[in-house]
Amino acid sequence: EVQLVESGGGLVQAGGSLRLSCLVSGFPIKDYSIGWFRQVPGKEREGVLCITSTGGSTHVADSVKGRFTISSDIDKNTVYLDMNNLKPEDTAVYYCAADQWSRTYFYCSGFGSGPEYWGQGIQVSVSS
Q1: What SS3 state is found at 114?
Q2: Could you give the C-alpha distances from 85 to 16, 30, 69, 72, in angstroms and in order?
Q3: Rounded-to-5 percentages of helix, strand, coil across the chain
Q4: Comparing 2-11, 54-63, 65-74, which segment has the lowest mean pLDDT?
Q5: Contact between residue 37 and residue 94 where contact means Cβ atoms under 8 Å apart
Q6: Among 114, 113, 99, 97, which residue's Cα sits nearest to residue 38?
Q7: Beta-carbon neighbour count of residue 3 at 10 Å?
Q8: N or C: which end of the chain has fewer CB within 10 A?
Q9: Which of 85, 93, 54, 46 has its CA nearest to residue 69?
Q10: Strand, helix or coil at 62?
Q11: CB of 19 closer than 8 Å to CB of 80
Q12: pLDDT tens digits for range 69-92
């Protein structure tokens, strides 16, 4: 059974940092396109940071460039989103997602049908 389980969210003051984790079961993350998305009520889901299945390309939303990074631990089959210098506008529900054919990466850029697998989402709130 495929599962993506996010953790590490919470409430932080502006300027602070958080690390989100996405523990994946059911497939090896090294062979999959992985990404982080976020959504605010009433708005469309936004691609934040996504990588292709080969790891050769990374999409980074302009709003988080220089502040957020994506990484992974193959042994733990876990993907991370490190968020620094957080701003109130980063407040959202964050989702990790994946697929085997880089649809996640292209969906992050605003194209295509989207990932095959999604996590349940986790709340990140940034106070001013």
Answers
A1: coil
A2: 5, 28, 12, 21
A3: 10, 50, 40
A4: 54-63
A5: yes
A6: 97
A7: 11
A8: N
A9: 85
A10: helix
A11: yes
A12: 999 999 999 999 999 999 999 999
CA–CA dist 108, 104 (Å, integer): 6
pLDDT of residue 56 exceeding 90, the answer is no
Q: Which residues contact 43 (CB under 8 A, 6 or more apart)?
A: none
pLDDT the model gives residue 54: 80
Rg of the Cα trace of the chain?
A: 13
- C-alpha 76, offset from chain centre: 17
For the chain, give the percent of residues with pLDDT over 90: 86
- Report the C-alpha gap between 109 and 31 in whole angstroms: 20
Burial class (CB in 10 A: 0-12, 13-18, 19+), 15: exposed
Contacts of 64 (CB under 8 A, 6+ apart): 48, 49, 83, 90
Looking at the chain, how many residues does it have?
128
